[in-house]
Specification:
The protein is mainly alpha-helical. It has helices at about 30-50, 60-85, 150-180, 180-190, 195-230, 235-245, 255-260, 265-270, 275-280; strands spanning about 5, 30, 110, 115, 120-125, 130, 135, 140-145. Helix 1 crosses helix 5, helix 3 (about 150-180) runs antiparallel to helix 5 (about 195-230) and helix 6 packs across helix 8.
Amino acid sequence: MNKKIFAFRDDTKSKEADEFIRKNGFTLPFQIFQILSFLIFIVIIAFIICISALNTNPIFITFYIFFGILAIAILVLSYIVTSINPIDPLSFKYINRIANEEDIKGLYECDICGFVEPQSKHCKVCNKCVSVFDHHCMWVNNCIGKKNYKYFVSLLLALTIFHCFVFLFCAVTFFVSLKHDTIKDQWNKLYGSYNDALFYTLICALFVLNGIFFVLVIQLFGLHIYLISKKMTTYEYIVNRSNSEDKEKMGIKTFFEWIIIDKKRLKKTASQSEQDIENPKVEA
């Protein structure tokens, strides 16, 4: 049993099935980026509350409603993506038993999981074969595959909209503060005083923090829209890029995949042995 609570790096060493199998993103150890993403989300919400000072102006009430809906959607989708076990349904089914040729016809063989579906790949971090493997996501500490991919893309969409609304909130709050006293009055009412320097520092800090994560999210969302249009998985995209003589023909710049995908791990995965990744097809 894994006694570590947090991990700064994913363990990609080869393991036997009885050593460790990650059920989902809530299985210990938690990934540090998984915790970081949740904390940043909470910090952004806290910034919004502090800056607006719970203003009852109709403009801010509208923002509260939209932020509330988006926050609930993000938390629910995050939970779904993290909690789903994307394991191949055939994993370990044919371990320690004689397989009938008809049963395994068209399947692929994994040294750890046995015979699995053709599009399944073995994730060394989770130590299991994932059905229609897309990638292992450090932000949710779970593999993304057939069972949770649609929820993952929905989460990216919700996050993109959320970050856009944060930018809008910063802009509206800034201009309202220049022309009206509603924010100053609310600060005096809630905090006992108003400070221009502190107020605008908080807005700038929120804008920058939101901008950093907006860049990450929008590129990841854009990549997956592209992959969906091409009917490709992230794994297939990385393997194709690795095997392509002219990488520019793949359509997306290397910067995109470098900043939003654990490229080093995926390239390492792509270069693993045939038994571990390519899963040679069983001729029947």
